[in-house]
Specification:
Length: 293
C-alpha cells in the first residue's frame, strides 16, 4: 500500500537547546535562512506524501504561521517588485495539505504519534521527527516508504552512532538482508551499559502500519517516564517483524547545539547566495586560529 500520510512530532520542550527554545520552537531554528521544519515538510513532499499532521504544543504557533499565508508581507513584497520572494512565500503556504493537533502534555514521542490516530485512520504512515533534518538528493522518507512497499512491514531509518554515545539513543539488534536493508529483531531505548545490542540506532524517520496505535495504547511509560515510540516499535518488530533502512543522506540533530551548528556551517557553504563568501570567511578564520596557536 502506498504511503501518503506523514506525522511530524514537534511538541517537545527542546531542553537541550535552551534558551533558544524557551519561546521559540526548536523545530523553527533556521539552517541559514530556512526553518528546520520546512526542510522536513519539503522532504515529505518529495517522498510522495500528500497529507501531513504536525503535532504541536503550547508556544508553537509560529510553526502554523510559517506554513500559512501572510497577506501583509505578500502585498509589501509585490509592491516592492520582489516577485521572486513573493513566489517563495506562496510556495511555502502551498507546500502540502498540513493539519495540526496539540499534544496537551509532553509525554513522549510514542504519545505524540498517538495524537495523530484519527488523522491516520487505517493507513500506513511516515513519521519524520521534527528536529531531525536529513539532507540528500534521494529523500530519506521516500527511501523508507519504498522499503515499506517492498516488504509490507514497518520500517525504521537507521544509522550507526559512535558506540560511546549509544546510551543517548536506541540500540538495535539487526540482521543484514540486502545492501542497506536490515531485519530488526530487537531494540532498546537509551540502553544502560551492557544492555546495548549494536551501535545501530533509529534516527529521525520511520514508516509504520496503523496497528502501531493499538500497540501504543498498551505501551507503559519507559525511559525518562515517557511513552516511547521505540518500546511500541519493539512490540511490532517482535510480532510482525520490522525492517531497517540505513538511508542515504546527512542527518543533522537540530535538538542539540553541535548538530545545529554543523547544519548551519555545512549548509552555509552550499548556499547559492553566501556559499563562496562564507567559505572564504571560514578559511580566514581557520588560518588565524592556526597562526594564533
Ligand atoms: P526529542 O526527545 O528529541 O525532543 O524528540 P525533546 O523532548 O524536545 O528533547 P529535549 O531532550 O528536551 O531536548 C524528537 C522529536 O519529537 C518531538 C520533539 O518536538 C522532537 O521534534 N516530541 C518529543 C514530541 O512531539 N512530543 C514529545 O512528548 C516528545
Amino acid at each position: 500500500m502506498k504511503v501518503k500520510k506523514a506525522v511530524i512530532p514537534a511538541a517537545g520542550l527542546g531542553t537541550r537547546v535552551l534558551p533558544a527554545s524557551k519561546a521559540m520552537p526548536k523545530e523553527m531554528l533556521p539552517i541559514v535562512d530556512k526553518p528546520a521544519i520546512q526542510f522536513i515538510v519539503e522532504e515529505a513532499v518529495r517522498s510522495g506524501i500528500e497529507d501531513i499532521m504536525i503535532i504541536t504544543s503550547r508556544g508553537k504557533t509560529t510553526v502554523e504561521d510559517h506554513f500559512d499565508r501572510n497577506p501583509e508581507l505578500e502585498e509589501r513584497l509585490l509592491s516592492a517588485g520582489k516577485e521572486k520572494e513573493y513566489a517563495k512565500m506562496l510556495e511555502i503556504a502551498n507546500l502540502a495539505n498540513i493539519q495540526y493537533v496539540r499534544q496537551k502534555e509532553v509525554k513522549g514521542l510514542g504519545h505524540a504519534v498517538y495524537c495523530a490516530k484519527s488523522f491516520i485512520g487505517d493507513e500506513p504512515f511516515a513519521v519524520l521527527y521534527g528536529d531531525d533534518v536529513i539532507i540528500g538528493e534521494n529523500p530519506a522518507c521516500g527511501q523508507l516508504c519504498a522499503a515499506y512497499e517492498q516488504y509490507g512491514l514497518g520500517v525504521a531509518g537507521i544509522k550507526r552512532v559512535p558506540m560511546e554515545t549509544i546510551s543517548k539513543y536506541s540500540s538495535l539488534k539487526v540482521e543484514g538482508v540486502a545492501a542497506n536493508h536490515f531485519k530488526i529483531t530487537d531494540m532498546i531505548e537509551k540502553p544502560a551499559p551492557g544492555h546495548e545490542f549494536s551501535n545501530y540506532s533509529i534516527l529521525g524517520r520511520c514508516v509504520l502500519p496503523p496497528k502501531i496505535f493499538s500497540i501504543i495504547e498498551n505501551t507503559p511509560k519507559g525511559s525518562g517516564g515517557e511513552i516511547q515510540l521505540t518500546d511500541a516499535m519493539r512490540v511490532l518488530a517482535m510480532t510482525d517483524g520490522m525492517m531497517g533502512v540505513d538511508y542515504e543522506g546527512t542527518r543533522y540533530d537540530m535538538g542539540n547545539k553541535l548538530g545545529y551548528m554543523q547544519a548551519n556551517v555545512e549548509q552555509a557553504l552550499r548556499h547559492p547566495e553566501i556559499g563562496v563568501a562564507f567559505a572564504a570567511y571560514l578559511e580566514d578564520l581557520m588560518n588565524s586560529l592556526h597562526s594564533s596557536r
